[in-house]
Structure formats: C-alpha cells, structure tokens
Amino acid sequence: MTPAVFEPATPLAPPAGRTTNDLIRQQNLASVLSLLHSRGALSRAQLGATTGLNRSTVTGLVMELTELGLVREAPGGERTGKVGRPTLDIEPEDHVAALSVRAEPHAVTVALVGLGGVVHARLRHDTASPPSPRRFVQIVESSVEAMRADIDRHYRVVGAGLAVPGLVNANGSVLVSPTLGWKRDPVAARLSDQLGMPVTAGNDASIGALAESRFGVGVGVGNLLYLGGAMHSIGGGLIIDGTLLRGTSGYAGELGHTVVDPRGRRCVCGRRGCLEAEVSLDILEPLLGRRKLDEDELDVELGVARNPRVMTEVTRQVEVLSIALTNFVNAFSPETVVLSGYLGALLSVSRERLADAVRVHPLGAEGRTIRLERAHLRSRLMLVGPAELAFADLLSNPAGFRG
Ligand SMILES: [Zn+2]
C-alpha cells in the first residue's frame, strides 16, 4: 500500500545542477526516515526488506541520517547468529521536534512533538470565548515562551504546524472558521512572524486523517474515510489511493456540512440541518447536565447514562449519523472508516447500528465489509497531527536539514 503523503509529486527531470543519482539518494533518504518516523525502531534488515533497498545502500543511508542527527542506534529486539549477539536497531532522533498548535473555540493547545510522534510536552490554555486571531497568536507565543528554556536546552525545532477547524488554503490562510469566528485571516503568516519559524496550517480533520494513516488505525490503508475531529464540529478527511484528497484550494472533505435534514437545526454555516448541527455534543451536554466535556470524560458519562432523554437523543443522533455514513461510504468506497472525537464516543456506545450503516449493498450485490474503527490516537491525535505538517519538508528531503 502507498503511504499517505502531503508532498507534491517528484518532478520528472532533476533540477539544474543535480543529477538523477542525487534525486534517487534524496528519495531513498526520505523513504528510510519516513519509515522510521511512522513505525519507530527497525533493524537494518527490516529497513532493507520494507524499502527493497540492498544491505550496503541501507547502511550508507543510515550513516548519512545519523550524521545529520536525524536517527540514532538503539538496542534491538533481534539476535544474530548462534552466539546471540544482540543487534542494534535504528530509531528516529526524537530531540528533532516540531511545535504542534491547535485552535479550538474554548482552548488553545501547544505541544512539543519529536520525530516518531513522541509528545514531549503540552500546554493547554482555556479561553472563555473563541479567541480572535491576534489573541490566539499571543496565547501561542506565551505558551512557547513557557517552554523556551527546555526547548533551547534539549531540542532542535524544525517549525510549527497548526490545526484549524475551518477552511484553510495552501498558504495557511483561513478562509472561514465558523466555530472560531475567523474570516480571511493569514494566521500561519502571523504566527510565523511572531515565533520566527516556518508555520504550516491545515484543516483539523485533514490533519487527523493524515495522523491516523501514519501512526494509528490507518497504517497501510490506501483508502480511508475519516470523520470527526473536534468535540463541537465535524470535519472530514479523505485518503484516496494513498493521498490526502485536497480538492479546489484544499477545501475537500467538508462532510460536516452535508445536509441531512433541510428543515433541521440552524448550522453555524448558515444552512439548516447540516450533519454537524444534527449530530452534536452541544445538544447532548445540557441533557447530561455537563459542559465542555473532553473525549475521555464523555466516554465515562455515556457509559453510565441511564436518563431516558439522553438515551433517546443518542439514538436519534446515531440514526442521523448512520444515514450520512451510508452515503459517504457509497460515494468514496473506503476500505476503512475512522470516527474520532465526539463521533468516536458515539461509536463506542452504538457499534452495531453504525457497523450496519457501512455494510454496503450496491444494487443488491453481496455486502462488502468495510472496517469501522474509532481513532486509535485518541487524545494524542491532535497533538501528533499538526506536527506532521511541520515535519513534511524534513521527511521529503532529510539532506536539506543541515546545521
Ligand atoms: Zn453547516
């Protein structure tokens, strides 16, 4: 299976001054580092077997990545020969790190994430109301300052990745984020100026799809439909034939604004009866008598809920979600469907109904089985995910990372 990639396709002809051999070496370095990043420690033999490269090529590539400070040797799990001498595995150098930033209506989260998806530190700043872009940048800057001494002492930070619940273009400008109240704001450029490092921004659901396909339930899955993301909005991310579906200007996958009931509740986008408005934690929280539940707290609440009004509302929302899922599965033909955030919690209490929704019977043919999974990374998803945006350049050209 092809791994999911954000990077553009490699040009057919080498740029001026570079030979085909240079390009092949760059691609091989990128393959080995990307593999170690997503899989963790591997032996040289495993690297060779997975990439199809011979032993001496792998040895040379590992040596170059070690000199670049991007990988290191670690005690391995395999033993060689009769003497049983332990081998050394190669693992990513997790002190090479990226800042991961997430903007939500009620919180700004900043994390420091190392190669291999290791979360070194995280800081969550709660806000009473959605922060303006200017205020958001201030909060991120003060969070980074709080980590500054640690960063300067221990880490090489390659840049920052930012997850936004809304439409984000390729330049990192937010076209619109209804839940944050942001419109036409160059937020990545603002943050980059303030932090003095490159910042890449993306839609939170697309980032979730990418992270699950690199580290979670979607490893090795070429066609994946990801639905969910935040606790209070629904985004979609689609991996089609191994590549994240971008669409015009990168806005594909706004599945939360699929209309499921034209006479339904008013949605933040202005329409009525969007999936996001009908399947919503905002409707359930008052019935539960709780506010601002996170995913772990919601699991506990739903696990013990006996209130008939809660149960009726959960059943109604699961029914609506089922209809939407059946439509999405018919439209995109995924191998695996991943539900995260609020929808992941609904899946845990209504697996049977939702599994039935993805059992497709096109034109009376035999039902095709599609895997339906809750996102594996859970609360780590949106810490690890945004950092992937910041690691993209390094992973596609490790030799460009000197100094
Ligand atoms: Zn809508």
From TrEMBL:
It comes from the Bacteria. The keyword Kinase applies. GO terms for molecular function: kinase activity. The keyword Zinc-finger does not apply. SUPFAM superfamilies: Actin-like ATPase domain, Winged helix' DNA-binding domain. PANTHER family: BIFUNCTIONAL UDP-N-ACETYLGLUCOSAMINE 2-EPIMERASE_N-ACETYLMANNOSAMINE KINASE, ROK (REPRESSOR, ORF, KINASE) FAMILY. This is Transcriptional regulator/sugar kinase. It comes from Microbacterium testaceum (strain StLB037). The lineage of its organism: Bacteria, Bacillati, Actinomycetota, Actinomycetes, Micrococcales.
